[in-house]
């Protein structure tokens, strides 16, 4: 238990004075203006959600390596429960987007990963049959706002 005398250093008057004269340092944030920012959406089947989360808690190293080799960085997938949406955000920092995306498609571990995960999802892309071929599996979302560092 604190004694009243030990709290005197934390009085609002002293705290306000210290805070008003001490500038806060600007945090060093990673650059967010590099490369192409990509946001994609797909629906997760509700009955497969826990399985989807479980496999994504331990993504295969070969799949992560293929993404890195293809210059994909800052990649995350979020779940929006009210509509069972998976929302992926990533940045591409390479110089030949199509070549690098084709490289991901040719990676054997990635093909097996997609065979595992595509069945857990439902695409919004008309005519889509899976990640490996066709018009694409995840639909791209348009960026309408951005705040840079």
TrEMBL record:
Which ranges of the sequence are coiled-coil?
none
Its lineage opens with: Eukaryota, Fungi, Dikarya, Basidiomycota, Agaricomycotina
In terms of Gene3D superfamilies, this protein maps to: 3.30.70.100
| UniProt-listed InterPro entries | Dimeric_a/b-barrel, Rham/fucose_mutarotase
Molecular functions per Gene Ontology? racemase and epimerase activity, acting on carbohydrates and derivatives
Output the superkingdom of the source species.
Eukaryota
Q: What's the name of the protein?
A: Rhamnose mutarotase
């Amino acid at each position: 238990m604190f004694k009243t005398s030990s709290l005197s250093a934390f009085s609002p008057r002293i705290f306000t004075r210290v805070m008003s004269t001490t500038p806060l340092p600007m945090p060093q944030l990673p650059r967010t203006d590099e490369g192409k920012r990509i946001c994609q959406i797909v629906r997760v089947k509700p009955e497969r959600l826990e399985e989807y989360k479980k496999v994504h808690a331990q993504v295969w190293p070969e799949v992560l390596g293929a993404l890195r080799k293809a210059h994909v960085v800052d990649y995350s997938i979020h779940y929006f429960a009210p509509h069972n949406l998976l929302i992926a955000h990533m940045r591409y920092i390479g110089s030949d987007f199509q070549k690098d995306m084709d490289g991901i498609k040719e990676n054997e571990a990635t093909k097996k990963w997609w065979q595992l995960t595509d069945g857990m999802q439902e695409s919004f892309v008309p005519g889509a049959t899976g990640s490996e071929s066709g018009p694409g599996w995840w639909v791209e979302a348009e960026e309408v706002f951005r705040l840079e560092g």
